[in-house]
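Researcher: Let's do a round of design. I'm pasting the structure tokens now; please hold your answer until I've finished.
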């Protein structure tokens, strides 16, 4: 069976897979990991179960001798910012990100506001299994409420100058954690802002929290039928951005990342962009325009920061529209991504579609097949042998690169499945690559099952 932690953090159905008891035990385990002293920042998104889980988590943290600094309902980037701003030893964000409303979860952050790396998550899980350490009655930690939103807003407005010209922006907040804050900051930076789905509501009545093209049709229609310069869509905890151009077409997360990088790094010499093995080649095209390089890591936000801390870098991000600006905060930052896009348009006086056309088009396909957890390592090893002539990249799964495209075969970190992603400049070639990858995957799965 897979461990408690997925690619980053823990998620499950609230009150079933993710209960108040588990939240308490995680709080106690975290306090134990910190040596039963120090401060922990706690934030949560708008899900109906979040306040309940915050109470339980706070009890575990204070029972373990640590102080709880409760930031209330905030976007994930504000929790990251607040952890460092209030000199906390760790942070916890109660969120299930883009998952449906019945889910909730937790992500853990270090003293610099970066997500726990795998080793630290594993250590926390080990403490959880063994049982955390409670303290004596006179060593119980304190619990206090603090405002992280005001200093975050002030820091953003101090860092970012007003845009060169007024831009009309339609922002879809998904009734999520950024609903009140992000539209207001964009107004203060000089935008004309129209907000939809901007009343915080854990039932997500406006649309599902995952900003897919299917889910943001209302935004697309509003942008295309008005004189808006662009549309912006966030997920539930507001750490990711999807952009809609002036014609109502939504850009993939890869392209959002690539265009944000071109604007943000335009004056940087030989910039180093960190991304994962699952991200589009459009990042390589962006790096070439900038005279920089792309470094690829394992999948997961903490892996990007691990590489940044080890070897340096100027920007990091994933294929889902999550971009990390390391000179700001060490987590994916929806608002800063918004700002880079608006600035790019205002500065160049080009439309989103015109900027999008400066990068090559790519077609992507995603396929999957069932694979029992216990067979995943053996399937990977068998694939490695079958594909050895291709000299595959083994950073995370098996990535095979050709002159005209690539595919990656990778086991899910949270489900009993194996995935195949492919990319090429034509749909036909992307299909061919996906079919080849799935053929090898099914052959390996069949042979491994026969051996076992």
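Researcher: That's everything. Go ahead.
Model: Designed sequence:
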């Amino acid at each position: 069976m897979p461990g408690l932690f997925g690619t980053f953090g823990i998620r499950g159905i609230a009150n079933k897979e993710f209960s108040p008891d588990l939240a308490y035990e995680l709080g106690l385990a975290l306090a134990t990991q910190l040596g039963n002293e120090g401060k922990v920042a706690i934030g949560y998104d708008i899900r109906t179960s979040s306040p309940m889980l915050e109470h339980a988590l706070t009890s575990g943290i204070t029972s373990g001798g640590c102080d709880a600094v409760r930031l209330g309902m905030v976007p994930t980037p504000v929790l990251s910012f607040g952890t460092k701003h209030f000199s906390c030893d760790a942070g916890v964000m109660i969120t299930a990100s883009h998952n449906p409303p019945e889910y909730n979860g937790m992500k853990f952050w270090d003293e610099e506001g970066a997500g726990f790396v795998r080793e630290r998550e594993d250590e926390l899980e080990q403490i959880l299994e063994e049982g955390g350490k409670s303290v004596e009655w006179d060593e119980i930690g304190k619990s206090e409420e603090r405002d992280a939103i005001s200093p975050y807003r002030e820091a953003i407005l101090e860092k970012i100058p007003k845009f060169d010209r007024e831009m009309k922006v339609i922002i879809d907040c998904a009734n999520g954690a950024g609903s009140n804050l992000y539209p207001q900051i964009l107004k203060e930076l000089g935008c004309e802002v129209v907000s939809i789905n901007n009343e915080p509501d854990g039932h997500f009545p406006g649309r599902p929290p995952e900003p897919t093209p299917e889910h943001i049709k209302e935004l697309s229609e509003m942008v295309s039928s008005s004189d808006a310069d662009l549309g912006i869509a966030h997920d539930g905890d507001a750490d990711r951005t999807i952009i809609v151009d002036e014609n109502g077409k939504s850009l993939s997360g890869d392209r959002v990342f690539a265009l944000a990088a071109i604007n943000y790094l335009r004056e940087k010499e030989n910039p180093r962009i960190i991304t994962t093995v699952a991200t589009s080649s459009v990042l390589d095209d962006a790096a070439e325009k900038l005279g920089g390089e792309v470094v690829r890591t394992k999948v997961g936000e903490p892996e990007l920061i691990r590489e940044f801390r080890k070897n340096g870098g100027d920007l990091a991000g994933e294929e889902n529209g999550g971009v990390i600006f390391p000179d700001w905060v060490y987590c994916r930052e929806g608002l800063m991504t918004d700002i880079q896009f608006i600035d790019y348009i205002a500065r160049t006086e080009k439309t989103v579609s015109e900027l999008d056309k400066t990068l090559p088009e790519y077609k992507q396909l995603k396929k999957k097949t069932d694979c029992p957890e216990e067979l995943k390592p053996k399937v990977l090893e068998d694939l490695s042998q079958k594909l050895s002539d291709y000299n595959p990249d083994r950073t995370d799964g098996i990535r095979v690169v050709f002159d005209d495209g690539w595919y990656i075969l990778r086991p899910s970190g949270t489900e009993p499945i194996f995935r195949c992603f492919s990319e090429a400049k034509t749909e036909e070639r992307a299909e061919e690559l996906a079919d080849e990858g799935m053929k090898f995957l099914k052959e390996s799965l069949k042979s491994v099952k026969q051996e076992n």
